[in-house]
User: Fold this.
Amino acid sequence: MSLFNELKRRNVFKVGIGYVLIAWLVAQVLQLIFESFGTPDWAIKTVLVLLAAGLPFALFFAWAYEMTPEGLKRERDLDRSQPITPQTIKKLKGSKTSARVLNSLIYKSRCKGLANWDLVNSILASSTQNNPANGITGVLVASETHFLQVLEGEFEALNATFERISHDSRHDKVQLISFTEIEERKFGDWAMHGIGLFDLNQELKFRLCEKFGEDNGNVRFPSRAPEVMELLNILFPKEQIGTAGE
Ligand SMILES: Cc1cc2nc3c(=O)[nH]c(=O)nc-3n(C[C@H](O)[C@H](O)[C@H](O)COP(=O)(O)O)c2cc1C
Assistant:
């Protein structure tokens, strides 16, 4: 990394410019006050010298320390793989959006053509390849005509994965159902678990169609998160999925 980039990364330029502006403002105000009190010239000059002398200290402080979510830290104690600015912004905003905050994203979409196990398996192959590296877990439910997917993970990874998925030409009419913060993962054991409703036994299919409606002989996927959770609770009774937003 070049010296220029390192100075920028450590906010040295920002602190320097900020210091000069504030010092100039302080000098102006003090000059007005000193003039109205008839303070001798040397006093004003001393203040100017002191303000100028403070600049190197401010620059050193910006270089050596960083405000992190855990408080003020020496630069050399920081994890350098993380950019400083997002951490600082999060701290200053007092935001809960630390790197560890989990989110859950639910969407449904229409499959182009008829879904089958070959298609689902090819999606699962790339999902199980990519999701662990991105800290994403979840489930994918496929009927013959539609997909319903729950993705869990940290905000940025989730956003990037959903962006990729929504541009996938194997489906269209991607409809976001919910994007909410969650306390813990409901599908923590699954990089992506797939279930094909085209294989469903008749009794369960009938029960689901009765509850959620029917669409050309297929279960109609719900458009609201609480109903999605109800559907998942029926499909995965052992997982104790609970209700949306829990
Ligand atoms: C319904 C559906 C769900 C998908 N789910 C995921 C997923 O959870 N994770 C993922 O990485 N890709 C998923 N994909 C595939 C992505 O759209 C994309 O093809 C893939 O991420 C590209 O990865 P690759 O560059 O490693 O091939 C999904 C695609 C579809 C159609």
